[in-house]
Amino acid sequence: MIPMVDVYEKVIDLSRRRGFVWPSGEIYGSVAGFIDYGPLGAMMKRRIEDIWRDFYVVREGYYEIECPTIGIEPIYIASGHIKGFSDKMFQCPHCNEFFRADHVAEEYSIRNASSLSKHGLMRALTDQNCISCKKPLGEVEVFDFNLMFNTSIGPGGSRKGYLRPETAQGIFTDFGRLLRFYRDTLPFGTIQIGRSYRNEISPRQGMIRLREFTQAEAEIFVHPDQKDHPNFARYANYEMPLWGMDHQEGRLDPVVVPMSEAVESGLVANEYVAYYLALTHEFMLKIGVDKDKIRFRQHLPDERAHYAADCWDAEYFSSRFGWVEAVGIADRTDYDLEAHAKVSGEKMTVFIQYPEPRLEQKRTIVPKMGLLGPRFKTRAKEVGEKIAASHPRERGTYIILDEEEVFIERELFDLRDEEVLVRGEEVRPHVIEPSYGIDRLCYAVLEHSFYQDDVEGEVRTVLRLPPIVAPVKVAVFPLMTRDGLEEIARGITDAIKKEGILAEYDDSGAIGRRYRRQDEIGTPFAITVDYDSKEDGTVTLRERDSMQQIRLPIQDLPETIRKLIKGEMQFNKA
RNA sequence: GCAUCGAUGGUCUAGUGGUAUGACUUUGGCCUUCCAAGCCAAUAGCCCGGGUUCAAUUCCCGGUCGAUGCACCA
Predict the structure, then answer these.
(1) Whose CB has fewer CB within 10 Å in chain A, the N or C terminal residue?
(2) Is the interface score ipTM higher than 0.90?
(3) DSSP state of A415
């Protein structure tokens, strides 16, 4: 093994050279935060997404939907992105530097700076000096900088639109239709893979922080009182490193415990969260993230959203960036559905039938509008509604009118007590949300598969991609470009392609060079046609990682390679 | 966004006020019976804009991108 100076540099260099990833729009000078996936990168990303679909759509049964990347304003008012996703900023008139207004105000010990209005912050800053150039600020303009890209819809531009900052909102706004699709039962889940956009102030970590990125999100709607996953047994004994908040605060290492124990001890809030933690771990291993460089870190109370019952990040270790968050798994409770219910006026609930209808006492308050009208005039309707929602006592009830408590005599309303048969209740589901940053995972896979071996004094660069992730599955070489070896090799290439497996024919340069070329792009297998092939119809099959070769008949190739890629067969047993 | 440093073929690099060195890669040819061999040839470059100058890849200013620190973000 050759010591790695800076793996990041080498991985990025290889990515550019061999067509995995490069900066977007280079001929006009690139802008930070945007990348292009080249021919091999796009294919590798697609494979990773397909494996993800295998886990969530095929195995879990959560169907995929596709929503627009542009959303209208009310969506993001409800989601909180209009408010919570923006920072109040200002620019120093002298040094032109931008600052967060509330942070600077805090520097000057102004209380509650983060809750001050734009105007309030402006006034607070007027008498202060710039924290950078030290000159007096004067009346600076405090403006909102929102991390969402905005646009306008239609020729008049009358409707404001935003590029979505996450794919999740599309699933939430479709809740009603999805619920009917799943025939009004809980639990159900829906997934979406797509682009999201955040106008980061200064993205500077290559593929790690992008302004346009691909998310794969699942929104799983569960009954608030039933957070036991029906298939939890699958992962009950699954073990992986969990770094709970107590351990983080006590500066202790992550613990490795079975998921069942993690739930029982309260480390993980419930089976649903635990299930997707384990599933995520399994998924990350499958796509080629290094097992020894994964941990699951629980959000500390101050970084966790106030509504979240529990939240964990799957992190991987990068030699360049340290621990990188790649997946977030949260129990978001009913926060999102409730928020959309409030703004949209839709119910966003599920009617859950009781096993047996229940006979319940029900008290209805009926205001006597005939008496309220003359007394309260135009306010009568409002008063009536408030009476109906109040809690009457024996002599009457109290309501709040114009911030004053008003007593309403018993004569002004009727009470009807009746027995009703209640067949069920409206329940607002809780949402379990695993959210994957596909680009960050792509980088993890590239960095963790990157190896430089020493082969007889020469450096051999090899991407040890799992065969299912590798863009090209098999390379076919004629040993010599003569005596009909090419024809045999081309025939083999075609036969393998017919199986739907991507094979690449290459007869350029010395055989060793061709092996190296394929090693560098992670092609797991290589077939070489030599002179014996002409005699007995066999070829050599070489495995990328071990560089071992075996001989086998040409007609067995497509089937053997298919099994090797799927992991149904080990190379040394082929 | 600010400060410091940097940017030369696909990659790594030499060098310069008068259009650029070498290596690797790639392509074609020769040679070659399994891990970047050899020979011949070809392709290909001074980040962008402005200024100074007869002339700018070189000097100056601004920008973009990258690295580092701050800020921001997770």
Answers:
(1) N
(2) no
(3) E
